[in-house]
Write a structure and sequence with these properties.
Layout: H1 4-9, H2 11-19, H3 28-61, H4 69-102, E1 122-127, H5 140-147, H6 152-158, H7 169-187, E2 191-193, E3 198-199, H8 201-206, E4 219-222, E5 225-229, H9 233-239, E6 245-246, E7 253-262, E8 281-291, H10 296-314, E9 318-322, E10 334-342, E11 347-356, H11 360-365, E12 368-370, E13 376-378, E14 380-388, H12 389-399, E15 407-408, E16 422-423
Parallel strand pairs: 2-7, 6-12
Antiparallel strand pairs: 1-9, 3-5, 4-5, 7-8, 8-14, 9-10, 10-11, 11-14, 12-13, 15-16
Helix pairs in contact: 3-4
């Protein structure tokens, strides 16, 4: 979350910047409550000091002037009652203030395009060209009828729509993609993780997923304890070092994690995003870093380099888009989307979002380090997909399809598939 001391200093400037993300934001109620909390604290501390002085008087004057004791004791009792009442009021007000502050998004960086939505995104780089076909290219669901890589009917039978089932060579292609990308992360110096797939509510809070998006995650009941399936490995990786003080010499920490991801909102996009384009469950390699203010830009560029290198080695046409304030995530200060071309959709689709989050998440998770001056500071966090597989799977099928319905396998994946060069139609 944001440092409230900054909001106090220049509320007008910060409100303008925050409204570029969410036009409904007003800092006035938050700052009014903050003023009340500080006033209650001051009054409470003053009364505690008075009580301490009276208690000392009772101790020193009690034997010398016993006739003063009843009056002093009555004053102490009155002060104690008022202090207890103030503490209750203060606790409730602090809780309300924390909830209000937790619902304020991160500040966008200078230079981020200001726009209410994705129409303000700016394409900053394009690599390769859209494939040309001498036949009418098929949608990946039409290709699947020939290749038999996915079975949406059986998964709908057991679970519902939006839950994929990979079969045969489809399962092998998925694992080839994941294995290739994990090898890529490892070669780039990332520490690899296979993290837990469920987390506590406070870990969701620490990464910025709640309270803003409360109710969008799948709960898991475990006796009297409630867990939630992770929407991304970012959540659990951020939580690994909550309430810790990291060593400056260890930063930046560079993590890469494989996990399934679970998202309730996945099925809301409509018929144009059928098939694997938007799912409730999907696989992803997540890049995550704990860095410092001085190193976060270097890490950001490294994340971007890894994502681009994967797409270049897969031979896929893609572009980079700098997201506008209205299209950025709740926790990000800057985001670049890596978007691959999907011929079946005739559009670009995001396969990775590379984001800087500053110290927004670490304030919520209380993850700190001692800087070179020995001062305690909050770490800076970054995240990015490296990459998410469903749309990558679709991109390979649709971009590498042949006239007979077969699909060429990118050379970089062939060693993971017994050097197989082609996915052939199944009779």
């Amino acid at each position: 979350m944001l440092d409230i001391r900054l909001l106090r200093k220049n509320p007008e400037e910060y409100e303008i910047r925050l409204r570029s993300k969410d036009p409904s934001i007003s800092l006035a109620p938050l700052l009014a409550l903050d003023k009340t909390v500080r006033s209650l604290k001051t009054e409470s501390e003053g009364l505690v000091a008075q009580k301490r002085v009276l208690s000392e008087k009772i101790h020193t004057l009690g034997r010398e002037s016993p006739d003063t004791l009843p009056q002093l004791l009555e004053q102490v009792e009155s002060l104690s009652s008022r202090i207890k009442s103030l503490e209750n009021e203060l606790n409730q007000s602090e809780s309300e203030l924390m909830d209000m502050l937790a619902r304020i998004p991160n500040l966008p960086d200078e230079g981020v395009p200001i726009s209410p939505g994705k129409e303000g995104n700016v394409v900053i780089k394009t690599v390769g060209e859209k494939p040309s076909f001498d036949f009418s290219p098929l949608h990946h669901l039409e290709l699947n009828q020939k290749l038999n890589l996915l079975d949406f009917r059986l998964s709908a039978k057991t679970t519902g729509s939006g839950w994929p089932a990979y079969r045969g060579m489809g399962a092998r292609l998925e694992w080839a993609l994941l294995s290739y990308m994990l090898d890529k992360q490892y070669s780039k110096g990332f520490t690899l993780w296979m993290p837990p797939l469920a987390v506590r509510q406070d870990i969701l809070f620490g990464s910025g997923q709640i309270p803003k998006f409360d109710g969008q995650y799948y709960p898991v009941e475990d006796g009297d304890k409630q867990l939630f399936l992770i929407p991304t490995a970012e959540v659990v990786l951020n939580g690994f070092h909550s309430n810790e003080v990291l060593e400056l010499s260890d930063l930046p920490l560079m993590y890469a994690a494989f996990s399934p991801c679970f998202r309730r909102e996945a099925g809301a996009a409509g018929a144009n995003e059928r098939g694997l384009v938007r799912m409730h469950q999907f696989h992803k390699i997540e890049m995550f870093s704990f860095a410092t203010l001085e190193t976060e830009d270097v890490v950001f560029e490294k994340f971007l380099e890894v994502a681009e290198e994967i797409l270049q080695e897969l031979g896929l046409h893609y572009r980079l888009s700098l997201l506008s304030t209205g299209d950025m995530s709740f926790t990000a200060t800057k985001t670049i989307d890596v978007e691959v071309w999907l011929p079946g959709q005739k559009s670009y689709y995001e396969v990775s979002s590379i984001s800087k989050c500053g110290d927004y998440q670490s304030r919520r998770s209380n993850t700190r380090y001692k800087n070179k001056d020995g001062k305690m500071s909050f770490v800076h966090t970054l995240n990015g997909s490296g990459l998410a597989t469903p749309r990558l799977f679709v991109a390979i099928l649709e971009n590498y399809q042949q006239k007979d319905g077969s699909v060429k396998i990118p050379k970089v994946l062939q060693p993971y598939l017994d050097n197989k060069e082609l996915l052939s139609p199944i009779n």
